[in-house]
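Contributing new records

If you add data, match the layout below exactly. Sequence lines come first and carry their own label; structure lines follow with theirs. Keep one chain per record. Anything else will be rejected by the validation script.
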Amino acid sequence: MSISIDGDDDTAFHGAKLALFIGDRLATILRDDRVDIPWPAHWDLPGGGREGSENGPTCALRETREELGLVVSQASLCWGRLYWRKGLAFWFFAAHLPTTAEKDIKLGDEGQRWALVDPHHYLKNPKAIPQFQSRLADYLAAT
């Protein structure tokens, strides 16, 4: 069941991710290859941990700006759902930007590189993070 993406849900959450489409391709980030982080050298989506009392959309959009240099407006969010994993709540959102946004992507200080990929390729990629594959599948099934 989808939850409103307006950020008014008062559930304490741990972090937020964004399935960001640039045209018809999905923005992904190859995580650093370090043993001290979860999912080293796997393909990730923009997003991360909550800071302070920010709401879900604010968290996802801040992380996207830090990781890909893209300023995405909250109005661009078209879908959101709260998921639970290991007793913690996480937001997962989707947004679409035009293909021209690709020229504005600048990798932040985390990750090895970024790539725009067909979303169905991400769903089948053995080096994609499994929980984000299933959440992306939920979004694609809902649209």
